[in-house]
Specification:
Order of helices and strands of chain A: EEEEEEEEEEE
Number of strands of chain B: 11
Strand content of chain B: over 45%
Radius of gyration of chain B: 14 Å
Number of strands of chain A: 11
Strand content of chain A: over 45%
Distance between the termini of chain B: 37 Å
Number of helices of chain A: 0
Helix content of chain B: under 10%
Oligomer: heterodimer
Number of helices of chain B: 1
């Protein structure tokens, strides 16, 4: 299957860390991605992880991958108001189609 | 970097009319383009995959006659919502795949089209 699930909302205080979780069912994806969507806009690739990696760090972003549990997470350190957006995880299960999760709306308050 | 232009960004149309949305890759040739529909509080749902010069491949549950996709050149794909109804109101996003960029950076998204059918 190609179902990718995320929690719908997350609210954090500015300066705190945010953790956005994603579960997927298809284990054949070579890459897993995190995209960001700002209001009324398209999608911007934030980061990605290769399926044989457990962790990837990119400045304030940390991606953790647990292949056994088919669980992917994105941690944003020192969350800022500019991080408020919808975050999508995505996979490409043996095709060139990007399959997106349900999206998590992150709201950062002062 | 790669740019995909999607036009129009917003459109309001009357029920029963047709609306065409364009997706152009500006600085690369896109062998494959994808059309997504975004529902409120829900995921980006892949509607169809469009390959230049061939018929689009539609996802299960997407009406082919309702959502006409044409990929006439390597830089242009169009989505036409025919006989639009209020339930077709949504945010539509296209994506173009640049085969020279590999699997990570090869997807570029348009900025989306907000369709409102009244």
């Amino acid at each position: 299957g190609e179902d990718v699930e995320q929690s719908l909302f997350l609210s954090v205080r500015e300066g705190d860390s945010s953790v956005i979780n994603c579960t997927y069912t298809d284990s054949s994806s070579t890459y897993l991605y995190w995209y960001k969507q700002e209001p009324g806009a398209g999608l911007q690739l934030l980061t990605y992880i290769f399926s044989n990696m457990d962790m990837k760090q990119d400045q304030r972003l940390t991606v953790l991958l647990n292949k056994k549990d088919k669980h992917l997470s994105l941690r944003i350190a020192d969350t800022q108001t500019g991080d408020s957006a919808i975050y999508f995880c995505a996979e490409t299960p043996n095709t060139d189609k990007l399959i997106f999760g349900t999206g998590t709306r992150l709201q950062v308050f002062p | 970097g790669a740019v995909v232009s999607q036009h129009p960004s917003r459109v309001i149309c009357k029920s029963g009319t047709s609306v065409k949305i364009e997706c152009r890759s500006l600085d690369f040739q896109a062998t494959t383009m994808f059309w997504y529909r975004q529902f409120p509080k829900k995921s980006l749902m892949l509607m169809a995959t469009s390959n230049e010069g061939s018929k689009a491949t539609y996802e299960q549950g997407v009406e082919k006659d309702k959502f006409l996709i044409n990929h006439a050149s390597l830089t242009l794909s169009t989505l036409t919502v025919t006989s639009a109804h209020p339930e077709d109101s949504s945010f539509y996003i296209c994506s173009a795949r640049n085969p020279r960029e590999g699997w990570v950076y090869g997807y570029t998204f348009g900025s989306g089209t907000r369709l409102t059918v009244v």
